[in-house]
Amino acid sequence: MVEWNMYDEEQVRLMGEMCIVVDENDRPLGGDSKKNCHLMTNINTGLLHRAFSVFIFNPEGKLLLQQRADEKITFPGYYTNTCCSHPLMTPEETVEENQAGARKAAQRKLEHELGIPAEEVPLEKLEFLTRIHYLAPSDGLWGEHEVDYIFIFQGDVTCNLNPNEVKSVKYVSKDELKELFETAESKGILLTPWFRLIVENFLYKWWDNLDNLAQFKDTKTIHRLLPQ
């Protein structure tokens, strides 16, 4: 049994949202609650859901990071990419063509978490790169098991943080991010596992080519970055 009284009321409410359950090839199987999708007891039996991760760069080429709020149920206080969440089982966010559902979800959550107005991140400017399949426990009870759609956006954005979702944000250069990764453990800084996987496997080559990301777009591959 989950003892909900130990968690933030708003975060508990969001656990009732319906995520998109998929098979390992990202084919939709139906919906299930965010709670059920993130319980390790279900993850350990193979329950897999769809997610997205957004990386926003400013015009100078710096990456916007967020620190997740302490109220979050999974990975509280961890540093991560600009925004990461889930498309939901709604008509708008289940559209498969051109990753339309995941794009709409990304735009929705950028506004919900960081207060970035939708008009500042047009759907067609969210550049889809690829998908990763990963599994990571948060603690003994909760974790993540996702097919994660990765989007990059470059431009000026206005942040008005939702403190229930985001503790802080900051822009970092490539060298600053490398230093963060090198010193995080010694400084007691926590980094989300999906953020680490994307950075270590892909991000720097994308970062070097922000003006020509189309060459990296891969709509067919799902990169399996699973524990050995």
Automatic annotation (TrEMBL):
* CC per GO annotation: cytoplasm
Catalytic activity of the protein: isopentenyl diphosphate = dimethylallyl diphosphate
The cofactor required is:
Mg(2+)
Annotated keywords = Isomerase, Isoprene biosynthesis, Lipid biosynthesis, Lipid metabolism, Magnesium, Metal-binding, Steroid biosynthesis
Domain named Nudix hydrolase: which ranges?
A: 47-197
Superkingdom of the source? Eukaryota
Q: What is its EC number?
A: 5.3.3.2
Q: Which GO terms describe its biological process?
A: isopentenyl diphosphate biosynthetic process; steroid biosynthetic process
Q: Which InterPro entries match?
A: IsopentenylPP_isomerase_typ1 (IPR011876), NUDIX_hydrolase-like_dom_sf (IPR015797), NUDIX_hydrolase_dom (IPR000086)
The pathway noted for it is:
Isoprenoid biosynthesis; dimethylallyl diphosphate biosynthesis; dimethylallyl diphosphate from isopentenyl diphosphate: step 1/1
Molecular function (Gene Ontology), one example = metal ion binding
Q: Which family does it belong to?
A: Belongs to the IPP isomerase type 1 family.
The protein's name? isopentenyl-diphosphate Delta-isomerase
